[in-house]
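ok new one. same drill as before - structure tokens go in, u give me an amino acid for every spot. 364 of them this time. try not to just spam alanines like last time pls lmao
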């Protein structure tokens, strides 16, 4: 994704962040004219176009819950950083890494990249078919340059990566969808009722509903899973590509861990106004670093290098943060975070989808 760069100033002047720049406008998320919500257009055959999923789907049941509105990005991040080709692509080609290597990176760059994540995916999850296709085409095009011959410099057996090709595009989409399911099952409160897993039938249906999305991003048809058992088998097949390895995070040009490089350059370029960005990042990202690994299945926690003691304590870790988890899902917090992280189009898509889904379930 391209990054909205701070305004140009004097050569050595510090970048000053404002509330207006922090919030951004619709152009921060929108890439191709106005979005059309699912259910608001007509397909070629004359039927209502409900997009990739639509009302009554298990996907919408998950995605439209307040927990996903506030936790989608940190949940996605913890899972995607386990997939080594994604980490390698961020390391080598992401605008954040390029700005860090050039000495220009600030915490606003990290915030703005984080901020656009949910809102730029919402058109594919909640828009009509044309809206979903246009955004997928845009992302495919800009990810075309995210490729390289080295995933892990200490493990040549993994080969290279290509974000727009079938394997890595498929796993980017799967880890988005799976992360939302894990957040829903572990963190989504239902009034005073605690989070609960989907039924086995619903979980299989959720996986099966991924198929149009995986097809849209370019996954090979033969690899698309249609049940949780098939998804588990796919994780097993690609197990060597999952895990935390310091060598994958090591910048190929500087030899520095890219996260450490971000911190070093951001500290050098620090201005007190950057606290506007770091405060939001703390609330929506950093403060959940203990919770997000705990929602992962044991297989992925092991890949993340967590100890048996940490894994066995996962449920306790989540329970210990119960008050915080419930509080951030309050209507007031959800509305504020939705506006900030999903953008104007995202708010419209979520609102429209919720209304459509509620009407459908009320008459089903």
């Amino acid at each position: 994704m391209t990054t909205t760069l701070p305004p140009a100033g004097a050569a050595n002047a510090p970048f000053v962040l404002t509330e207006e720049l922090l919030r951004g406008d619709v152009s921060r998320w929108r890439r191709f004219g106005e979005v059309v919500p699912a259910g608001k257009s007509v397909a070629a055959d004359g039927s209502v176009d409900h997009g990739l999923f639509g009302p009554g789907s298990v996907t919408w049941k998950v995605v439209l819950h307040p927990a996903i509105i506030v936790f989608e990005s940190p949940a996605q991040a913890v899972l995607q950083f386990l997939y080594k080709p994604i980490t390698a692509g961020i390391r080598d080609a992401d605008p954040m890494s390029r700005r860090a290597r050039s000495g220009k990176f600030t915490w606003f760059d990290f915030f703005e990249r984080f901020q656009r994540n949910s809102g730029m995916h919402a058109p594919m999850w909640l828009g009509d078919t044309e809206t979903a296709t246009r955004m997928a085409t845009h992302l495919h095009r800009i990810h075309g340059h995210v490729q390289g011959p080295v995933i892990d410099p200490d493990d040549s057996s993994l080969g290279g990566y290509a974000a727009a090709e079938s394997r890595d595009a498929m796993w980017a989409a799967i880890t988005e969808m799976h992360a939302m399911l894990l957040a829903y099952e572990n963190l989504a409160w239902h009034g005073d009722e605690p989070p609960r897993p989907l039924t086995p039938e619903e979980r299989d249906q959720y996986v099966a509903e991924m198929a149009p999305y995986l097809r849209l991003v370019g996954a090979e048809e033969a690899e698309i899973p249609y049940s949780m058992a098939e998804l588990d088998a796919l994780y097993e097949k690609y197990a060597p590509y999952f895990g935390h390895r310091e060598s994958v995070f090591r910048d190929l040009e500087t030899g520095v861990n890219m996260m450490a490089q971000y911190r070093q350059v951001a500290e050098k370029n620090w201005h007190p106004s950057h606290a506007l960005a770091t405060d939001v990042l703390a609330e929506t990202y950093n403060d959940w670093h203990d919770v997000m690994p705990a929602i992962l299945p044991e297989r992925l926690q092991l890949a993340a290098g967590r100890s048996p003691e940490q894994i066995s304590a996962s449920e306790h870790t989540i329970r210990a943060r119960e008050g915080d988890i419930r509080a951030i899902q309050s209507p007031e917090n959800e509305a504020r975070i939705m506006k900030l992280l999903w953008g104007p189009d995202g708010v419209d898509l979520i609102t429209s989808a919720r209304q459509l889904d509620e009407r459908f379930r009320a008459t089903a």
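Strands lie at 147-148, 161-162. and btw Residues 1-10 have pLDDT under 50 and may be disordered.
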